[in-house]
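Project outcomes to date are best conveyed with an example. Our students and postdoctoral researchers have been running inverse folding experiments weekly, and each run begins with a structure described purely in tokens. The record below, which covers 334 residues, was selected by the lab manager from last quarter's runs and is presented without edits.
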């Protein structure tokens, strides 16, 4: 990443956000070919100054996704065809951006870096064993080394990375044996955590969670990955958040790392559909609403047993897929 001005933290984050948002929309075919992109209207749409917009457009131009023409601005033309310039007011719809999507991440810098590193670790730990270089991460993310170190320390607390005294940060590998061990602990602890936590859940919240499952089932293969992850959050985080034993809660959170295998497989295969998981979730919530807590706990235990087998199968699939290009701060270990 190139050097920036004294205010590098916010502009750097913003131009990357703008570039990635437009890039994904263009490559996904969601934008209108020939649409003219101009700094001013884009800056207004993204709620920022023109500087990060200009940086983002220059990067997209270097990548060949937009091009200059005889006029002001850039033309969306990823195929290199001679599209007629379309000058119209820029809207989210024309740029393929969801109405509810937040275009700029205003969270504190430390939170953004933590999430970035967590996503990178989760994505690559299923492919093997990696060393994380603090200095390289700081340079690539354009932040201080202290910010990176603090994020890695939080990831260590979650069990995603490890560090021995005076040695490197390490991530992965997520092995079949580790998956089995984690699910064994979850099968022992999560049903009891559900038993404790569900008493604090309003019935209206449980009904909303069941409704989300039904909608996901109705969507079939069109269900979005974000919707699947919300369902996982509902059952495995929200419903057990009321557990009073903080050590139990910490162990459960650490053992839930294998849940990320589904996300990685989705990125590789672009498929979110999991009919069996949805039915298992539905049985649990129907038991909570119309049956007994004990029957729901039994359904949860059965769900985790089946999820373990699905996760092991997904690990096998991932083992034969091409490994994605890792960022510079991740070094694959033999």
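After processing, the design step wrote out the following sequence:
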């Amino acid at each position: 990443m190139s050097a920036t001005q004294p205010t590098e933290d916010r502009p750097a984050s913003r131009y990357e956000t703008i570039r990635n948002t437009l890039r994904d929309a263009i490559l996904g075919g969601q934008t209108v070919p020939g649409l003219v992109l101009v700094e001013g209207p884009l800056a207004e749409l993204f709620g920022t100054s023109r500087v990060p917009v200009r940086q983002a457009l220059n990067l997209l131009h270097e990548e060949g996704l937009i091009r200059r023409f005889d006029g002001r601005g850039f033309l969306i033309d990823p195929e290199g065809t001679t599209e007629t310039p379309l000058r119209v007011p820029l809207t989210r719809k024309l740029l393929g951006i969801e109405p509810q999507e937040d275009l700029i991440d205003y969270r504190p810098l430390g939170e953004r870096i933590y999430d970035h590193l967590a996503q990178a670790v989760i994505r690559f730990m299923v492919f093997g064993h990696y060393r994380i270089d603090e200095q390289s991460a700081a340079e690539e993310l354009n932040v201080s080394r202290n910010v990176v170190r603090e994020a890695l320390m939080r990831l260590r607390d979650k069990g995603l990375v490890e560090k021995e005294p005076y040695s490197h940060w390490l991530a992965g590998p997520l092995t079949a044996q580790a998956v089995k061990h984690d699910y064994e602990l979850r099968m022992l602890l999560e049903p009891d955590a559900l038993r404790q936590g569900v008493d604090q859940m309003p019935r209206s919240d449980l009904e909303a969670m069941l409704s989300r499952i039904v909608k996901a089932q109705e969507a079939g293969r069109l269900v979005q990955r974000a919707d699947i992850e919300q369902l996982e959050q509902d059952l495995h985080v929200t419903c057990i958040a009321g557990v009073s034993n903080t050590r139990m809660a910490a162990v459960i959170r650490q053992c839930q790392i294998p849940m990320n295998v589904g996300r990685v497989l989705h990125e590789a295969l672009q498929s979110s559909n999991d009919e069996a998981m949805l039915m298992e979730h539905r049985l649990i919530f129907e038991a909570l609403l119309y049956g007994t807590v004990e029957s729901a706990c039994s359904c949860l235990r059965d769900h985790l047993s089946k999820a373990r087998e699905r996760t092991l199968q997904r690990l096998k699939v991932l083992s034969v897929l091409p490994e994605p290009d890792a960022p510079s701060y991740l070094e694959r270990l033999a």
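The chain has 13 helices and seven strands. The domain at 109-173 is CATH 1.10.10.10 (Arc Repressor Mutant, subunit A). The training component of this project remains on track.
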